[in-house]
Amino acid sequence: MCIATALKHLHREEQVLISARASKPVTVVLSFWGKGGVGKTTLSSSLAVRLAERGYRTLLISTDFVPSLGDVLGLEVPPRPTKVAENLYAEQLTEDSIIELWKQRFGEEVYRVASSIFPVGREVIDYVAGAPGIVEEFALYYVYERARSSGYDFLVWDTMATGGGLRMLRIEKEFYDHLGDAVKMYLKVKGVIEKIRTGAADPLELIESWRKLAHDVLEFLRSSSHRAFLVARPMYVDLQVARRVYQELLSFGIPLGGLFLNMHIREQPYLEVEEEYRKFLPQGFPIFTVPLLSRSPRGLEELRRLLSDVPVEELVQTGRA
Ligand SMILES: Nc1ncnc2c1ncn2[C@@H]1O[C@H](COP(=O)(O)OP(=O)(O)O)[C@@H](O)[C@H]1O
Ligand SMILES: [Mg+2]
Questions:
Q1: Which ligand lies nearest to the CA atom of residue 66 in the structure?
Q2: CA-CA 20 to 30 A from 137: which of 22, 107, 266, 271?
Q3: Beta strands in the chain (DSSP E)
Q4: Domains in the chain, please, with CATH?
Q5: pLDDT tens digits, residue range 229-246?
């Protein structure tokens, strides 16, 4: 075979590969947001169980660094996807595991950028890994990577409590803006840096690649492959918090799939508070009510029953829209 034919051949194979990749269905991420104790871990686990039961390959990830997924599922859940039932995988990230993953993914790049500007050693990796906001920001990136590359139909994401969850979004946005400034700053002082720098790597490319990544993560969260669900109880303070979270998610342009009104009792004053929720949500916004049980729902069977009144197919359609 002559070189030209071989190249053509390669080109065709490449095209087949690219089109196969393009037609691969994307993982839909369903995330849960709300203050601590409203039922995010319980409901995300319950939804994951129901999706898996319907034959969807599902990954349940908790990025809440106060781990409780294992307690809710009644199983050991390590910080890597672990099969817990047919079609169901679970993963509990911890602060330590995420710092370790961050170092593996970005440690070397950070060292290259830092050492090309300043005379620093590899200890800079640990220093940056411990910087405020790194774990939250990386949790977002991690979920994004999992959704893009692991072939699940659904990724059900138990985020951290409101404060941490929203902070994670703000940091990603700030990181993105900040890296834009970093590039400008770098270009300004480039002449000076060139004279003193020791490393050979051009940090500009790396900084640009981080900025693009931050942009892609935010775009992914804003895309139709992601749906955020609010979780709250029919109580006044929860109502106020849910209203703020709702506004903030909207301001980020994140698509919302509905509100889970958890620990609901179908009597007054809870029904009245339910009405108050309806007032700040747009008409037709899905509200799924989940009853208050007399004890913590635990284990796969109880979790399956907890959302038995919720039309999961409908919810899935919203997620796929
Ligand atoms: N529908 C429910 N009925 C009774 N207890 C519930 C219900 N949903 C959650 N719980 C309990 O409420 C507490 C908080 O739930 P959890 O899922 O840990 O909330 P979060 O993850 O938002 O902090 C847990 O003890 C959990 O077992
Ligand atoms: Mg939780």
A1: 2
A2: 22
A3: 28-33, 58-62, 82-85, 88-92, 154-158, 226-232, 256-264, 287-291
A4: 26-320 (3.40.50.300)
A5: 999 999 999 999 999 999
